[in-house]
Structure formats: C-alpha cells, structure tokens
C-alpha cells in the first residue's frame, strides 16, 4: 500500500457494509476510569483522532462518554464524525443478555448508538447466540457495524455456519512478534477488516533493535514505525496512551513510508508470541 492512500489521521477504510472506519484510533484498555480516561479521549480528539475503542469490561465507558461530550463541545467536532467502539463481555454472551449489555453500554457512554459493537472473546458454545443479538441490533439500525474480537480462523468459520451477516471487523492482538499473517489472509478473503489491539506489545517492543534501526533511518520512534507497518498492511490500529505527547506522537505517521524491504524485515520478526491470552485457552 503506497503513501498516497494513507494521507492523514482521519483516513478511513470502508467496511463491507460501506461504513467508513478510521484507520487509527485510541484504545483505552487499562486506562483508569475518571479524569485519566476523560483527558485521554479529549487529547486524542483534539489531536485529530476520530476513533475511540472501549469495552464493558474496561469499566470506563462512563468516563469515555464524558470525554466524548467534552471534546465535542470544546473542539466543535460533530458526533457523526466520531467512531465509537465497545464490546460485550463474556458473562453476557446469551441472546437476551447481549441485547441488555448493549443498552447498558449505550447508557454509560451517553450515546444513541455505537458505530461498532464487538463480541469480546469467542466463548465456545455462546458466541453464536450473541452474534444473533448483534445481527438483530444491526438490522434494526441500532448499531452501524458489528464484529468480533480475538477470533481465530476456526471461530470465524464456526460463526459463519449460522451467521446471517458476516462480521465487519475482527479485532485481535497483533504486533511484529504476532503478525497474524494467516488470519489476515483469511479476513481479506472474506471481507472482514482486521484491527490490531496491543500493537506495541504493551511497550515490550520499544527497545527492539531491528525496529530501532528502521526508525533511525526515518527519524521516527519504534512506536511510529510499528503503527506505520500496521497501516501499510491495511490493518486498523488502536494504540493506547494516556500521555498527550504520546497520543500526538502515535498520530505522526503520515510523513514517511516504509520500504518493501523494511516491511519484510518487520514481518520477519514474527514469533507467534502473545502478550495477552490465547483465545483457545483463555480462562473465561
């Protein structure tokens, strides 16, 4: 993917239903409820981010909602310009429970609808019923797009056997040590947008010598190189930060381009190594 297709922080990718999703967003996993989340959301939107990703289990939806409202007022951004994602937690993966969880998330966020709602983890025997609830929310116009998170290929294949609507997004752990090439190929083939959580491996890659060397050539940080690698692969990415200067730095990705050789050098770092749980062995 060449630079002219990724020009700025507000660039979007079309999901298979035509909804435009920003390529770069702010994740708020492990960001404390209260002023820290409020300030992070406001700093991100002030910087130009238009996508905010939260989840019921993060326990910070109310503060995300407050940050959104304050940012809309202070920065004059229309709600329609923002893309807000949340996720249904494992304990709520029945049909009725998922519908109720969606209403609870909306209430906490103070929103009339979400832009994207995801099944957070593929709990065996439960996610198909939860998906039916998401489909009904979508078909009723209650949510703009629906998807899944942490789904392997086999989970997607199982889901597709009964699904009326294909997931629009699969949000998974993805970084240079867990490149997810097979899953990426499967999602491309089926028109499912792959999205990276923990793209910086929770900070564990910031001293990586190969990526440091690439960054030095471009005058960019390791974080910027990794996020640019995501974008050039066509993957949506949602780095987490609470520091305004890091939020700004993570958005400064549009004045350089990684060469094919640099992309391949980063691809070659893959070890299939996770920092989070394996979806097949997650103790729910």
From TrEMBL:
Domain (NADP-dependent oxidoreductase) ranges: 24-271
GO MF assignments: oxidoreductase activity, acting on the CH-OH group of donors, NAD or NADP as acceptor
Organism domain of life: Bacteria
SUPFAM superfamilies in the cross-refs: NAD(P)-linked oxidoreductase (SSF51430)
Chain sites annotated for binding substrate: 120
UniProt-listed InterPro entries: AKR, AKR5G, Aldo/ket_reductase_CS, NAD(P)_OxRdtase_dom_sf, NADP_OxRdtase_dom
Catalytic residues of the enzyme: 58
Site, as annotated: Lowers pKa of active site Tyr: 87
Keywords: NADP, Oxidoreductase
Transmembrane feature ranges: none
NADP as UniProt keyword: yes
CDD domains given in the database record: AKR_AKR5G1-3 (cd19157)
Protein family (similarity comment): Belongs to the aldo/keto reductase family.
Protein name, per record: Aldo/keto reductase
Native source organism of the sequence: Paenibacillus whitsoniae
């Amino acid at each position: 993917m060449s630079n002219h297709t990724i020009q700025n922080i507000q660039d979007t990718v079309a999901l298979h239903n035509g909804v435009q999703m920003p390529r770069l967003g702010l994740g708020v996993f492990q960001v404390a409820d209260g002023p820290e989340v409020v300030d992070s959301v406001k700093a991100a939107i002030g910087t130009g981010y238009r996508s905010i990703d939260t989840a019921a289990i993060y326990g910070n939806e109310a503060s995300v909602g407050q940050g959104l409202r304050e940012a809309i007022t202070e920065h004059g951004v229309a709600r329609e310009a923002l893309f807000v994602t949340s996720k249904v937690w494992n304990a709520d993966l029945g049909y009725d429970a998922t519908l109720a969880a969606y209403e609870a998330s909306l209430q906490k966020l103070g929103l009339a609808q979400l832009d994207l709602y995801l099944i957070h983890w593929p709990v065996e025997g439960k996610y198909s019923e939860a998906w039916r609830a998401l489909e009904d929310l979508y078909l009723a116009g209650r949510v703009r797009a629906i998807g899944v998170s942490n789904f392997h290929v086999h989970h997607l294949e199982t889901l597709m056997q009964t699904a009326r609507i294909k997931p629009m997004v699969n949000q998974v752990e993805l970084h240079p040590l867990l490149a997810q090439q097979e899953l990426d190929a499967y999602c491309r083939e089926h028109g499912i947008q792959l999205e990276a959580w923990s793209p910086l491996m929770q900070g564990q890659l910031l001293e990586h010598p190969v990526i440091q060397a690439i960054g030095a050539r471009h005058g960019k940080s390791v974080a910027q190189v990794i996020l640019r690698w995501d974008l050039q692969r066509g993957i949506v990415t949602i780095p987490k930060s609470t520091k305004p200067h890091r939020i700004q730095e993570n958005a400064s990705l549009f004045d350089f381009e990684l060469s094919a050789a640099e992309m391949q050098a980063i691809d070659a770092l893959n070890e299939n190594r996770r920092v989070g749980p394996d979806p097949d062995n997650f103790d729910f």
